[in-house]
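pasting for ref
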Amino acid sequence: MLTALEEGVKGGVWFSLIDKVWTERNLLASYSNVAANDGAPGVDHVSVEAFAGDLDANLAKLAAALRGGCYQPQAIRRVYIPKPGSNEQRPLGIPTVRDRVVQGAVRHVMEPIFEKEFAEHSYGFRPGRGCKDALRRVDELLKQGYVYVVDADLKSYFDTIPHERLMSRLRERIADGRLLGLIESFLKAGILDGLEEWEPEAGAPQGAVLSPLLSNIYLDPLDHQLAAQGFAMVRYADDFVILCRSQAEAEHALTQARQWCEAAGLVLHPSKTRIVDVRTEGFDFLGYHFLTTRRGILAHWPRKKSMATMAAVYPGRHQPDVARLVRILPA
């Protein structure tokens, strides 16, 4: 895809992108991904199977609407899922199938542009990278003596990303006004929660196809700033840790991260963000608990919340069996 886009780049800014979104090949590839993920219907009650029932005509309608500049996203259906190990619930947004297809087509065009600039220590929702790669990197750094860990928690990150600041980031690389307008229309799509509907003033809803890429784009400057200052950071979407060799270094890293977040309109959770010395206490990251044993040996195992989740999914199994499953499928 990047090779096909090269003719539209001038001085690091990309032009003429929207026509790549509506191509038959791109929309069909996006639909295939949507179909593979399945998922529930959106506010229009059209399932993936129903959309596929007249696939050629549905994709042609999307292409025509995009080409004619009259495509409008539908509202996003909000649902809530329980957070393991707590009484809290996590909000998820379910776009319609048609919107998921278009968002995927937009992602196919945008991702190669930004992917080549993303920091090495960013692992979430990126091609060829995953949760286990992030966990291995944390394990590697701890074994190298980075025993002070800034265990960071961004408060309601996906619901608080400032729209205008995010759009400003996109404009640094994209100058196609029609594509930018389409992305902004997705950000401002109404949220339908039961009988209530409103237009969000911030955020990129979890559950939307485009949100993981947008979330990485917004946090990428933080990645590069901390890397330029020599900090060892491992980030998976909005979950990140900064590994340091001393308490003073960890405190400095936390100060830098907090200042960047405040300037970016984000908040580090005051009670969940902390500095940990793994020689005296542990920390959780991506479903695993890391801790140094009394003999000085680094140990890690599925955290209690992950064990509880897997035990609920696989009832009747013995605890060691559940632990094995969690190791294979980290949360």
